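Weekly puzzle thread! Below is a chain. First person to post its structure in token form gets bragging rights.
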Amino acid sequence: CSLTLHHTEKPKHEAVCEYRPYSCPCPGTSCDWEGSLEAVMSHLMHAHKSITTLQGEDIIFLATDINLPGAVDWVMMQSCFSHHFMLVLKKQEKCEGHQQFFATVLLIGTRKQAENFQYRLELHGNCHRLTWEASPCSIHDGVSVAIRNSNCLVFDTATAHLFADNGNLGINVTISMC
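Winning reply:
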């Protein structure tokens, strides 16, 4: 970052600066890794080997065993348009046994780059369809910001079971350029 700031303005700027180090974007882990944007994919491939990467603009994100108790995160990568996208399905308890699912897409890139893309998430079932379309967030913002800003597909356990097949939930994910 080439900005010159007064020392009192520096902490506030560093919190939002596109040039600050990126943290590991993998939800549900206690990974302390930080590094440049260019190093994020290499980190994910070496430190988080369980993450599957699929190629193409249109894929199916399969979340297995959605009935597992407690908070659970399912993560997958999608590569298309010379970019990498992190697909996340997060299950968490919102209040007294009521669980919610949050599905979103993050671009392994800057906020400005994320503005160039749209994603669509679709759940299909017998005579039912649930669709969410939005622009991805940057990994700079992360899953928690997407959830806090309601920039994600949100559904409850009953809805998840409506679309699940033997405890597995397939989400069609389509990435397009704006």
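Puzzle host: Confirmed. Bonus trivia for everyone else. The radius of gyration is 17 Å.
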